[in-house]
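Lab notes, practical 5.
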Amino acid sequence: MLRAYLTRRSASVSILLGLVLGVACHSGDDDDATPSGSSGAPSTGGTNSGTGGTTPGTGGSSMGGSGATGGSSTGGSSATGGSSTGGSSTGGSATGGSSATGGSSTGGSNATGGSGTAGSSTGGSAGSSSPGGSAGTSSAGTSGATGGSAGTGANPCDTALFCDDFESYTSAPNGKWTLRTTSGAIAVDQAQHVSGAQSVKFTTQAGSKATALMRIADASIFPVPNNVLYGRMMFRIESEPTQSVHWTMIAGLGVVPGQTYHSEYRYGGQMPITQNSAFAGSQLMANYETPDWYADKSTPGSDCWHHSNARVLPAAKWTCVEWKFDGATNGMQMWLDGAPADDLTILGHGDGCVNAANDFTWTAPAFASIDLGWESYQQDDARTAYIDDVVLSTTKIGCP
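Output from the prediction step:
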């Protein structure tokens, strides 16, 4: 079992000690793979599915509370001709604080009567008409805070690389999607949805490692121009870990340009956050992995983290999650409900690493796949999550 390397930034001594005692050790490997057919790619799930060649398993990562010591272990299983190795536990904790919430501005639009165009400024104003027309009335737009786009009614799918509202599937996503499950399941479901009549439901069983991720790695999408990819999904998690459990909801994987090893950008969370002595949620964080290191120590190690400022996702509520993976600058950004989550921005490196120097560069891969869903790397209860209205694009998308 790996021990967590923890970096504590802002909690009091009493809270810090409580967190350190509650940090869970990472007990399973964290599995990722490049698109099927790629040689030398990390394995998928708890068991590799490729045949022939050596398929290194992805090392799992988890972020704990500061003050503990960490290390790495090996684990996982291998399929024919493949090998899988274990993961590592990463340090860091945070308590208290309130999560930032994103507001939306009111954009003006032109009503009937007149040929004038709508206003789209923050606060929204009535669109004025040209000579001979009557003034249009204002209406609520959908623009977010800084970095958002005005609610002009344009369909982002008109220019996007990929869109899916999951209305065309009868049992589970297929076509350009491949499903990755270990102690988990994925199916379309009509109990929860944002648009249309159904979304995708992800469930995982209680245990030390669970995966329910859907992957898109289609050649019609990847590689992306300039290696800069924007994404959006509507995401809902019914409950969150109340203990230290590292989990992932978004991951971008590929080979590092000019190298032979893979790296991965991830957004997820780990540490439990309390507000007024009550559990508020699981603190969001960015995570960086070089998964080949777990099987081949000649490649760079990493397992690096960057914690948010006690920011959490609300449970049992749909959240618009947007992200940018910027291979040109080795950067990551996130927006929640249209508002920038600046405390989750990465530019070059994060707060620290388990298997590398703390200022280790988060060198972006040439993105070749995106995973969406739920994956946990430590002992956790059963989880249920939903995803709807996924868009991948070369520009920022905005919320529906």
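Observations recorded by the TA: Residues 1-29, 31-152 have pLDDT under 50 and may be disordered. Residues 13-22 form the longest helix (10 residues).
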